[in-house]
From TrEMBL:
<dbReference type="InterPro" id="IPR037185">
    <property type="entry name" value="EmrE-like"/>
</dbReference>
<comment type="similarity">
    <text>Belongs to the drug/metabolite transporter (DMT) superfamily. Small multidrug resistance (SMR) (TC 2.A.7.1) family. Gdx/SugE subfamily.</text>
</comment>
<keyword id="KW-1003">Cell membrane</keyword>
<keyword id="KW-0813">Transport</keyword>
<keyword id="KW-0472">Membrane</keyword>
<keyword id="KW-1133">Transmembrane helix</keyword>
<dbReference type="Pfam" id="PF00893">
    <property type="entry name" value="Multi_Drug_Res"/>
</dbReference>
<dbReference type="GO" id="GO:1990961">
    <property type="term" value="P:xenobiotic detoxification by transmembrane export across the plasma membrane"/>
</dbReference>
<keyword id="KW-0812">Transmembrane</keyword>
<feature type="transmembrane region" description="Helical">
    <location>
        <begin position="33"/>
        <end position="50"/>
    </location>
</feature>
<feature type="transmembrane region" description="Helical">
    <location>
        <begin position="57"/>
        <end position="78"/>
    </location>
</feature>
<dbReference type="InterPro" id="IPR000390">
    <property type="entry name" value="Small_drug/metabolite_transptr"/>
</dbReference>
<dbReference type="GO" id="GO:0005886">
    <property type="term" value="C:plasma membrane"/>
</dbReference>
<feature type="transmembrane region" description="Helical">
    <location>
        <begin position="84"/>
        <end position="102"/>
    </location>
</feature>
<dbReference type="InterPro" id="IPR045324">
    <property type="entry name" value="Small_multidrug_res"/>
</dbReference>
<dbReference type="GO" id="GO:0022857">
    <property type="term" value="F:transmembrane transporter activity"/>
</dbReference>
<protein>
    <recommendedName>
        <fullName>Guanidinium exporter</fullName>
    </recommendedName>
</protein>
Length: 104
């Protein structure tokens, strides 16, 4: 159950990162409010997961999912470049998440 909470918290992190981008520096009300709601929910789920998971494991998985998810949204939705260097960096982050889970 704690790993499920971390995964959902990570997905919410992707959501708030995207809505923050859409808020245009918090100048648009709707995306700005959505950013704060998703942030609060993400942090809450992460804090519940940390009741039973080690700090390093929970935080690394949460930030990894957020980073990879935001990277994917940037490429797939926002048309950001997908260079081989950026893809390699994303693969290394993904590998780190897997190793963190296996090692805990």
């Amino acid at each position: 159950m704690p790993y499920l909470l971390v995964v959902v918290a990570g997905l919410l992190e992707v959501g708030w990162a995207f809505s923050m981008k859409q808020s245009a520096g918090f100048t648009r009300l709707g995306p700005s409010l959505l950013t704060f709601v998703l942030m609060a929910a993400s942090f809450a789920l992460l804090s519940f997961a940390m009741r039973s998971l080690p700090l390093g494991t929970a935080y690394a998985i949460w930030t990894g999912i957020g980073a990879l998810g935001a990277f994917a949204v940037g490429i797939l939705v926002l048309g950001e470049p997908a260079s081989s260097t950026r893809l390699l960096a994303a693969a290394l982050i993904g590998g780190g998440i897997v190793l963190m889970k296996v090692g805990s």
